[in-house]
Design goal:
Elongation Factor Tu (Ef-tu), domain 3, 434 residues, Rossmann fold, alpha/beta, 32% helix
């Protein structure tokens, strides 16, 4: 039932207070005719605090407020959403008509972890340092940590273009852009056009309201969940979650909330978790939602509150440095659920051997830089392996299938004498072939 109120008691930035309200719930949608929509963010007695989704510029205290009796919803139709671009309130920003379909809540409940089907399938990105050494499991949530000075847009674009589920066509990508610059928006829009048949984009520009920025991850997850329920395996890629946290800090300050660590609100952890925990593998004939969130790391400090809390919530990390993934710092906590079980039996052994050999070579390099002479034949082979590993395996500018990645690993490990490779004899005898 819609209830209309005619007086706004106070306007404080994007926060509007309406007194004498009854029968309204948290998260409920409200319409301000002529000024767009708002969302109930706080209820204190009979005073309701609304957050305007498009700002309160021009709103007067005599403005009518119409409570809609439902949460913030979006129309969804699987045949009409692909290839579309939406803004931070779910409206088309591509100049095409609005979607006609069933209404779905934007901030729906997360699936109980005990009902999630973990370890059923994986996502291929085409990038060896991810697929080979840090395999992403369907339904996983994992961040890409962007270190200072790095431009990860090309890596994100490559993942959007190349990501796939081996042997299946029912795969989609939902991209969320938070506070994008105009040139970033144009760049990702071109990426969308290249894969329009399987991609959805929801974008908030840096010049637009930070309030809308907070909606973008939830809109992406809402679309992804609906696609997953009809059997699609969906990869949600969101950049940049630091901008989400900064927008949350700005809006929380406007609401008068007491800031916590580094000025961020005390509920930052739960707000991030409400996004990442929407990653799910439904199992059976239904699909999955896998979330990759790009997170800038100020001053290369992983103890920064946003990166730190993200690490507690997610299931691994993928740091980017010098245009590639830092394999010695990367981690996928769920890869053991599929490696060697749903992938080739040699997957675990060859990747462990390559990473171990690379770590050994880095130690030898350090000794060489300190002035020690490296003359041993085996040590020289390790150094040669490291050079080849860095030039052929680690670059993020590749598109290899998982089997091609494993074959490349074997090709590189053959640089080392067979006797020093740390792989079980039966596996080594079958694949070394050199």
């Amino acid at each position: 039932m819609k209830v209309v109120y005619c007086d706004i008691e106070n306007i404080d930035g994007p926060i509007l207070q309406v007194k004498g309200v009854t029968g309204v719930g948290m998260g409920e949608e409200a319409l301000l005719p002529g000024y767009g929509y708002a969302k109930v963010v706080k209820i204190h007695g009979d005073t309701v605090y609304m957050q305007s989704l498009q700002g309160s510029l021009g709103v007067q205290t005599t403005q009518k407020t119409e409570f809609m009796g439902k949460p913030f919803e979006l129309p969804f139709h699987p045949e009409y959403v692909m290839g579309r671009i939406f803004d931070g309130i779910g409206k088309p920003r591509d100049g095409r008509p609005e979607i006609q379909g069933k209404m779905v809540p934007v901030e729906g409940p997360v699936v109980n972890p005990s009902r999630r089907a973990m370890g059923q399938g994986y996502i291929e990105t085409g990038i060896p340092s991810i697929d080979g050494a840090n395999t992403i499991v369907r339904g996983q949530k994992i961040p890409i940590y962007k270190l200072p000075g790095e431009d990860v847009n090309n890596i994100v674009a490559r993942i959007i273009r190349q990501a796939r589920v081996a042997g299946q066509e029912n795969f989609s990508v939902v991209f969320g852009g938070l506070g994008l610059l105009n040139e970033e928006y144009i760049f990702f829009r071109e990426v969308l056009e290249e894969a329009a048949e399987r991609t959805i984009m929801c974008v908030n520009l840096g010049s637009e309201s930070p309030i809308e920025r907070l909606n973008v991850p939830h809109i992406c997850c809402a679309f992804a969940e609906q696609l997953a329920l009809i059997g699609q395996h969906v990869l949600v890629v969101i950049t940049d979650m630091l901008r989400y946290a900064d927008a949350l800090m700005e809006v929380s300050n406007a609401q008068g909330k007491i800031p916590s660590r580094d000025g961020y609100p005390g509920d930052l952890y739960s707000r991030l978790a409400r996004i990442y925990e929407r990653a799910v593998n439904f199992g059976g004939e239904r699909g999955s939602v896998t979330i990759i969130g790009v997170n800038s790391v100020p001053d290369n400090d992983l103890s920064h509150i946003v990166a730190n809390l993200t690490g507690y919530i997610t299931e691994g990390q993928l740091p980017v440095e010098r245009g590639g993934f830092v394999i010695m710092k990367c981690l996928s906590r769920l890869k053991g659920l599929v490696v060697g079980k749903e992938t080739r039996s040699d997957h675990g052994p060859i990747m462990d051997a390559c990473v171990s050999a690379y770590a050994n070579a880095l130690g030898l390099r350090e000794q060489k830089e300190m002035g020690f002479s490296i003359t041993d034949e085996v040590d020289l082979a390790y150094l040669k392996f490291a050079d080849e590993f860095e030039s052929r395996f680690l670059p993020a500018s590749q598109n290899l299938s998982l089997n091609e990645t494993l074959d490349l690993g074997w090709e590189l490990i053959r640089i080392l004498p067979k006797r020093v490779i740390r792989i079980k004899k039966e596996v080594l005898d079958e694949y070394y072939k050199g």
